[in-house]
Amino acid sequence: MASSTATTSLVVAGALAVPLLAKSLISKAPTRTTSIPKNQERVVVIGASSGIGSELARIYAHRQAHVVLVARRQALLESLVQELSPVAGSILAIQGDVTLPEDVRRITLESLRFLKGGVDTLILCAGMISVLPFADLAGTEKTSAQPTRDDGLAHLLPSNPEAALDASIKIMNLNYHAPLNLTSHFLPALTQTSRAGNIIVVSSMAGKLGAPTRSIYCGSKHAAQGFFDSLGMEVEKTGVHVGIVSPGTVETDLRQSAVDLPSSSSTDSSEAPKATGTKRGAMSARACAEGIVRGSDLRQHEVIMPWFYHVSLVLQILSPSLVRWLAKKKYGYLK
Ligand SMILES: NC(=O)c1ccc[n+]([C@@H]2O[C@H](COP(=O)([O-])OP(=O)(O)OC[C@H]3O[C@@H](n4cnc5c(N)ncnc54)[C@H](OP(=O)(O)O)[C@@H]3O)[C@@H](O)[C@H]2O)c1
Predict the structure, then answer these.
(1) 129 CB neighbour count, 10 Å cutoff
(2) From the first residue on, what is the mean pLDDT of each consecutive set of 10 residues in the chain (335 residues)?
(3) For residue 231, how many other CB atoms are within 10 A of its CB?
(4) What ranges do the domains of the chain cover?
(5) Contact 170 CB / ligand 1 (< 6 Å)
(6) Residue 209: what pLDDT?
(7) What contacts 265, CB < 8 A, 6 or more positions away?
């Protein structure tokens, strides 16, 4: 009975998803490259030192665009500049931490100075993940310790709530507050200096659906989804477009710098907790970056990658319990 309901849901979801997918693939929207030729586009890529961001840098540089690359790891940025200088229209690396307000102001001014006072495309790609179950992070497991203080209730308190709060503040600062702050800094220039300004935020399917072991990551990406979705409607009348990109798993080193894993230098790696979840079926960083650039050229409001996640979103309405079952299966949470 349950399996026939699941099959029916899948068939209906597929039938509903196909027209949506076809519409996004054969979009008739005039490409933005008509008003901004590829070799005149002025692009700022935030989070350009590795993974998806470094592939975005390569694509724009090979289109001979004028590109600014931003991240904290200066050496990686410099080597990208060296690699791409021969092909880019022009290219600059700016080292900075986008969670620091003073760095965001400096990054904005240095970018605009380099790009001769204007910008067309801001790509917000810097981000971090979380990979531990929330209960493990906060230490909410049942302890065998005898109650000794706090009216005998101490055993009912978590052992490490500070770690959970600290991780949440860090991830929100990078995945939500930094893109918001960068947006407010670049918005005047996008509005006043571009024929078709674009803000493209690299969110995630974690901004649309929940997943076990990814609770604080999902929280931060859902917040970004809500903010940029609303912002897009607010600024549309100024000519600025906001696009939200939601990839599934991408083949990058994102998990290595997870906010809730100890840094590899500070622990014996055999004892350190490990990230769960499979990378099976992951798309390449290159394919993801190509999808992001296509979405920006077509000024698509939503880019969902790979295509089959459209089915998950339709299923989320038709049969949320099936989507929960699939997510729990992926992360090994089926009882
Ligand atoms: N990989 C996936 O499966 C996947 C799936 C969906 C969405 N995404 C999203 O894609 C985006 C890029 O991730 P990725 O997979 O390409 O991982 P990545 O290689 O770890 O890229 C993260 C980028 O963010 C930069 N960054 C981190 N903290 C920063 C800070 N405080 N200031 C400035 N830059 C900072 C990093 O550079 P520095 O360390 O040099 O600062 C790096 O360039 C993220 O927003 C992620 O959530 C990834």
Answers:
(1) 26
(2) 58 63 58 95 98 98 98 98 98 98 98 98 98 94 62 89 97 98 98 98 98 97 98 98 97 94 61 64 96 98 96 96 95 89
(3) 20
(4) 32-263+272-330
(5) no
(6) 97
(7) none
Q: In whole angstroms, what is the distance from residue 234 CA to residue 245 CA?
A: 18
Fill in the DSSP letter of residue 154: G
Q: Which ligand 1 atom sits closest to the C-alpha of 72?
A: 41
CA dihedral sign, ordered 53, 290, 66, 234: negative
Q: Phi and psi dihedrals of 198, rounded to 5?
A: -125, 135
To test the ligand 1 pocket, which listed residue (45, 46, 52) has its Cβ within 8 A of the most ligand atoms? 52
**So what's the pLDDT on residue 53?**
98
How confident is the model over 89-125, as pLDDT tens digits?
999 999 999 999 999 999 999 999 999 999 999 999 9
Q: Is there a contact between 53 and 27 (Cβ–Cβ < 8 Å)? A: no
87: tokens are 């092909």
Rounded Cα–Cα distance for residues 289 and 285 (Å): 6
Q: Of the candidates 22, 47, 200, 69, which has an alpha carbon nearest to the alpha carbon of residue 122?
A: 200
In ligand 1, the atom with minimum distance to the C-alpha of 217 is 47
Task: Tell me the CATH number of domain 32-263+272-330, given options 3.30.750.24, 3.50.50.60, 3.90.550.10, 3.40.50.720.
Answer: 3.40.50.720
Angle at 169 between CA 243 and CA 229, to 5 degrees: 20
CB of 47 shorter than 6 A to ligand 1: yes
